């Protein structure tokens, strides 16, 4: 959604970042709550660690984002997207160590 808001809607990059994070906050909270209520599959300690890490990371990201120009933020986001694409492409061609394994605790 971030590229669509920047390029299609013409929103300023710094506003888009805040809007995206605001949306992610509510979506994550809702999803966590629904998993906790209906399937009891939420690890509370892990959730607390992720919340603390997210708050600290958001503060660091906000400070770095305030120091960078919009063009620099776009370049960093493009590099991140390319890195994820590269990793996914690499995983398509590399053979895993174990083709079939049974891992305790996984459903599926």
The number of helical runs is: 4
Mean pLDDT level: 83
Q: Uncertain runs with pLDDT below 50, 5 residues or more?
A: none
What share of residues is helical? over 70%
Write down how many β-strands occur, each being a DSSP E stretch of 2 or more residues: 0
Task: Provide the β-strand percentage band.
Answer: under 5%
Quaternary structure state of the chains depicted: single chain
Backbone structural class: mainly alpha
Distance between the termini: 30 Å
Return the string of H and E elements.
Answer: HHHH
- Main beta-sheet strand count, sense and barrel state: none
Please tell me what the overall shape is: extended
CA gyration radius, whole angstroms: 18 Å
List keywords for this structure.
single chain, 4 helices, mainly alpha, 108 residues
Describe what is shown at a glance.
The protein is mainly alpha-helical and 108 residues long.
Overview of this structure, please?
- By secondary structure, this protein is mainly alpha-helical.
- 75% of the residues lie in helices and 0% in strands.
- The protein has four helices and no strands.
- The longest helix is centred in the first third of the chain and has 26 residues, at 13-38.
- The protein is extended.
């Amino acid at each position: 959604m971030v590229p669509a808001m920047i390029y299609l809607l013409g929103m300023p990059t710094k506003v888009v970042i805040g809007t995206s994070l605001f949306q992610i906050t509510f979506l994550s909270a809702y999803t966590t709550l629904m998993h906790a209520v209906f399937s009891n599959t939420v690890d509370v300690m892990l959730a607390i660690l992720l919340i603390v890490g997210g708050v600290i990371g958001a503060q660091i990201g906000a400070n770095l984002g305030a120091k960078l120009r919009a063009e620099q933020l776009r370049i960093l986001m493009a590099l991140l997207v390319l890195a994820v694409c590269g990793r996914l492409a690499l995983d398509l061609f590399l053979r895993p160590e174990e083709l079939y394994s049974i891992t305790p605790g996984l459903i599926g």
